[in-house]
Amino acid sequence: MNKQIEKKxxxxxxxxxYKSPRVKIIYWVMVAFLVICSLTALVPIVWSFLSGFKxxxxxxxxxxxxxxxxxxxxxxxxxxxxxxxxxxLINSMIQFxxxxxxxxxxxxxxxxxxSRLKPRGSKLLFKLMLxxxxxxxxxxxxxxxxxxxxxxxxxxxxxxxWIPFLIGSFCSIFNILLFKNYxxxxxxxxxESAKLDGCTxxxxxxRIIMPLSKPIISTITVFVFTSSWNDFMGPFLYLKKGSMATxxxxxxxxxxNWTEPKQLLAAFIVLIPTIILFMFCSKQIxxxxxNVGVKE
Amino acid sequence: xxxxNNINNLRIKRVKGKLxxxxxxxxxWLLLLPTVFAIILCQWNPVVRGVFTSFFRTKGxxxxxxxxxxxxxxxxxxxxxxxxxxxxxxxxxxSLIIGILPPLALAIAINETVHFKEGFKILxxxxxxxxxxxxxxxxxNMYSPASGGMLNSILQIFNLPTSQWLLNEKLVIPLIVxxxxxxxxxxxxxxxxxxxxxxxxxxxxxxxxxxxxxxxRITKITIPHIAPTLLLMIVNQIIGVFQVFDQPLVMTxxxxxxxSLTLGLTSYKMAFSYxxxxxxxxxxxxxxxxxxxxxxxxxxxxxxxxx
Lengths: 296, 307
Fold this sequence. Notes:
The complex is a heterodimer. By secondary structure, chain A is mainly α. By secondary structure, chain B is an all-alpha fold.
């Protein structure tokens, strides 16, 4: 244990402080605090899993137990069937596809244009985007619903189509900002030398920028997946047809009248994909949030 | 004659040059077109349309006649308005009491430890990736008044009487805020952490040479360094929590006895349940203005901090 502490090179406490017993106690209290908080972060998830397998009389039992009497996977398949999970999963993937196209392709091109091509007025656009991002959202839901259900001028109802999700994702300003920041950080010399070799603007984008941008693209992809998987207000407002419901919407619509254990298990099942994804992509997800700190 | 010809040629060349620039620039703007279109349609259009609608009487979702400020009068004189406004502020205040310190303390603790550092980071960040709806359903059941609800199970282990939790008018807001904090603290924590990691180690070393103890180092170096991030996070939290909407919608639907109803939820219910789109938009405009005021105030504060 003490060997590890010798590697400590950053932070308020230094190795020389650590020699004093008072600081040693402070340090280990801090570690204990982290352990307790990590458990608090896990408890609701684990509890939903354990309680989800309980029978109703077990759940209402006056002498509560931690572990369910049995863990039967039949319950999981029942819930998947009741949630119409297969169909809902396909719909969630379509939503993710729309959102991904808007965020990564359209957003990436916008970020590149603002960062590198810089047409006249793009600086103004960028400032306007920053201001727009600061705008409160209390006025967005109802007017947007009015707009999508009776689109101005052409009077088309876009409910039960994927158009609102596709167009809506064109303006995720935050991700455009991340792209712009990333493109800004690519050294100019790469592009200059490509230009000397006679590379066109499109060539520069596809041959130099795109290969260099894999990290930011994968980060934003992961980010888009979690946010579209978690989104239930959008599908709730625009996907009224039962066959178009996404996983999150199915969870909201169908579990309302279910028993507590069944609700918990369903919530747990919906939660699992994001947790698995997080286990594999924790670097991208946490890295993305860290970038927020260095805006502009 | 010859010289004027030359000048003409030059002029033509210059105009042609300008034309190719314009052509190029319009090509570039073509790349930005989808984004600009979507920003106008999805970000500015709702604000303009919402404010516009708030001055009209509506039938269904379409405007019928201009009524001036009468929607505002109706909304502001409604006895429920004051209650929901107080509720909304009470969400904000509870979230400040419960939610400000934990992420900061956790960020400092993670930054200090060397044991299991990455593991702590991942475990602590887990709630942030969980779908909000699933989180609300899980917490709703943890607060279940049945004996199987998690909190009631714990009370029973210690032979304490069980509680109604979310059905208790006084507890409902702090309980919802706890579930929101559980979901939201990790994002804030990472921001503090990145701010802490950008702090140069030299500063601490210089302080140590000057004989500064742990406490001095925290108050004189760490706190001033993260103060701007702290301010940003507090303002973000106030603005975010002020718009709270889907957690009470899922967990309590505004109950019991409207004790957890917020401005956002009322505005939603007016539009989609009671078909009073005009009033909903008046209420939305009121909270929009309150939040806009908060944002502008923040920018002023920030400028003062920078100066």
